[in-house]
Amino acid sequence: MRRSLPRDLSRQALAHLRHMAPAVPTALACAALTALSAKSAQAQEAPKDTSTSLPAITVTAPAERQGRASISGLGDTPAWQAPLQASSFSREALQNAQVTRLADLTKLDASTTDSYNAVGYWDALSIRGFTLSNAYNWRREGLPINAETRIALDNKSAVELFKGTSGMQAGVSSPGGLVNLLVKRPEGRVRSALFSVQDSGAILGAIDLSDRFGPAQSPQAFGLRINAAAERLATHIDQTRGRRQLLAVAGDWVVSPDTKLEAEFEHSTHSQPSAPGFSLLGDRLPSAKGIDPGINLNRQPWTQPVVFRGDTATLRWTQALAAGWRSTVTYGEQRLKTDDRAAFPYGCSTSGDYTRFCSDGSFDLDDYRSNNERRTTRSLLVQVDGQVDTAGVRHGLSFSVLRNLHATRVGNSAFNYAGTGNISGNFAPVDPAPDLISPAATRREQTTEFSARDSLTLTEATRAWVGLRHTRLHRGLTPTDGSTGASLNDNVTTPWVALGHTIAPQTQAYISWGEGVELMSVPFFHYPAYANAGAPLPTIKSRQTEIGVKGQGAWSGWNLQWGVNAFRITRPQDTDVNGDYVIDGSARHQGIEASWQGRQGAWGLFGSAMVLDATRRGSTQAGVNGQSPINVPDSVLKASGSYAFTAPVAVVAQLDLVHEGRRWVDAANTVRLPSWTRTDLSLRHTQSVAAGQAVTWRLGVSNLFDVQAWREASTLSGHTYLFPLMARTVTVSAQLDF
pTM here? Predict the structure, then answer.
């Protein structure tokens, strides 16, 4: 019987540095509110110097949902003219859709689905059927970060999604797309407090404070914004109570009309027991309606919470240059510390199959402990943008250099057999097995990326885009057991080209092609263990071709924005071949996407759909070619409709529909999850309480009809896990703006 397993570093591609002080109490934020109010009063009373050349600072609230995103790298290109698929969701849109964690983004976009999203653990997403790398596919303020942690949304102004091979936007990333987080920056006067409760027992309190101030000659030169949050975490799953805290500060200084300095910092903690998934019972798919979704298989007297601590900061200097050119220098640093612990269900030793549970519902229960994991990310981005005209062609040029360091430091872990459990949840306590005998490795991955982009206006109706990114990378690995490490040095160049033509007013047809580069490693956490566990695999390239039509405008009284596109992505496939982890053949994902959003009077409609065909090709293994990957739905529909009632009370009602089609559960394509549909309902009412003060009341019901179904069938180190839809959850909140 198995007694220990090596640690998986494939799901934690970075290091961690030291933990900083606990979050500051809410009292500090209240003191900051007083200070901001005092500064604001001083600024208002000070006489204005009309001779100052500082520009007026105004803030325009962003649209709730936009069909463009800054992460696309195309600047202010209108949504209908961008030759790619990208979306931006404002903080208001996230609140109205009941998005409380990044995993909830799956309800906003059809191309985005779950990829092992467990309660109490970090968020993992799949775009166009490819799981995003938490180490390389996430950005914050445009800089790489590690998402192997829980990221708070309280201080984020928007979340951006980019879909498709990202060679133009990122030198190293998996081909599905990118997620970019935008931080709340200083605006005018903002005073906001939020309080919410759930029927599961969760309670949240948060504040958002912002103001601008300065000396009499420059009354708007300085900006300061503070966000703080404290939450008691709870779900309808047993023993998942925890807590989290956030403190974030952002400031800026408008030095002159041409110079701006910005700085921001956030500290967060998240402590909560995780809730692992269920699995196949031998060759049988258990009925989701026969499983209590409130059962937590991670339930032992010695179970400890997963603890995430994070500190992240950025500094940015923006400088206007001559002739409309601009330079931006941004430095970012992220330090994470994680204590990853669980009574973890993994396989069936009696059958020797570690991809699923035993046919009678029992499973091996392992004592997993990996404390003091440290991950560090440091990035420096220097970028210059501008325009030139040559021979009647306007060029929008951008040149950048990105220096990035990912480091991961972990020690030996425990992944030891402790006993057995059962999906009924009625199993006896087992003794812990905490010995730290499973080796891991320290990793250091360093990249330098040089990129150039050009947006060419060829005629009034025709535009072209070209981009080239050259990446120099170094990867090093040092095992904790004293064995020989491994390293890899490589240089990779990834091009991107697109052509767009206006075929009708504000309607464009486009075609694009691009490459991306991806770093893969042999998994540590696997049974039986690979001989070269943790070693880097050769650098692989993905390729995408996309063709589409996008438009916006008025039709029958509706203000519409819409798009239809087809894509094909191919990437070399990393997989197990006869006990060796190698590159074998490729994966091809091709599909059709459609999106729309519109408003007319009191009505608002938003939606997206995707039909996807994902298959393996070129494998040397018999019976693999033509098979589909696990946990990739064949069709997805996300739709949202809202209506603003005016009588008897002014209430906005919003109904969100999430439908995901069938997906395979096993690599042999013999078991499928049925499709499922979930409906969420929310009501919101804004009540004016005084001049300039208002309270926004929100009532949200997630999974309105309490549907029971398997939400996803994701894999973790070769084992397939089934996660049920969360039981119906009711949330009530009040937001005071004053």
Answer: 0.90
| β-strand pairing of 156-163 with 635-645 | unpaired
pLDDT exceeds cutoff 50 at 34: no
User: Average pLDDT of 412-417?
Assistant: 94
Give the model's pLDDT for residue 63: 62
- Token reading at 40: 């604001």
Query: 289 near 722, Cβ under 8 Å?
Result: no
- Whether residue 437 has pLDDT greater than 70: yes
Chain centre to alpha carbon of residue 69: 14
Check residue 3 and give its pLDDT: 39
Residue predicted with more confidence, 42 or 217:
217
Asked if 569 and 130 count as a contact pair (C-beta separation under 8 A), the reply is yes
Tell me which amino acid residue 432 is. P
* The token pair that represents 173 in the structure block: 């990333």
As a whole number of angstroms, the distance between CA 316 and CA 331 comes to 6
Dihedral angle of Cα 710, 714, 718, 720, to the nearest 10 degrees: 0
Residue in 704, 699, 707 with CA at minimum distance from that of residue 725? 707
Nearest CA-CA partner of 367 in 423, 425, 300, 305: 300
Q: Comparing C-alpha atoms, which of 10, 12, 13, 17 is closest to residue 312?
A: 17
Question: What's the pLDDT score for residue 20?
Answer: 32
Amino acid at the residue 48: K
Distant-in-sequence contacts of 399-403, Cβ < 8 A, 24+ apart: 399/451, 399/452, 399/453, 400/449, 400/450, 400/451, 401/448, 401/449, 401/450, 401/451, 402/144, 402/171, 402/447, 402/448, 402/449, 402/451, 403/379, 403/447, 403/448, 403/449
Cβ 703 vs Cβ 727: under 8 Å? yes
Structure tokens at 725: 């839809």
Q: Could you tell me which of 384, 381, 406 has the C-alpha nearest to residue 396?
A: 384
CA neighbor of 317 nearest in space, from 260, 400, 258 = 260
- CA dihedral (43, 49, 55, 58) in degrees, to 10, reads 40
Between CA 444 and CA 687 the distance in angstroms is 53
pLDDT value at 208 more than 50: yes
Distance (Å, whole) CA 469 – CA 309 = 33
588-641 pLDDT per residue, tens: 999 999 999 999 999 999 999 999 999 999 999 999 999 999 999 999 999 999
Residue 731 and residue 202: Cα distance in Å, rounded?
Answer: 9
* Segment 457-485 mean pLDDT: 92
- Lay out the sheet containing 138-140: strands in order across: 65-66, 85-90, 156-163, 177-183, 138-140, 143-144
Q: Is the pLDDT of residue 41 over 80?
A: no
Whether 50 shows a pLDDT value over 80: the answer reads no
d(CA 73, CA 398): 9
Q: How many Cα atoms are found within 13 Å in the side-chain-facing hemisphere of 39?
A: 22
SS3 94: helix
Q: pLDDT tens for residues 374-387?
A: 999 999 999 999 99
SS3 label, residue 648: coil
Over range 40-65, report the average pLDDT: 41
Of 318, 466, 322, 469, nearest to 395 by C-alpha is: 466
Long-range contacts of 500-505 (CB under 8 A, 24+ apart): 500/81, 500/83, 500/462, 500/463, 500/464, 500/465, 501/461, 501/462, 501/463, 502/81, 502/460, 502/461, 502/462, 503/549, 504/551, 505/553
Amino acid 130 reads F
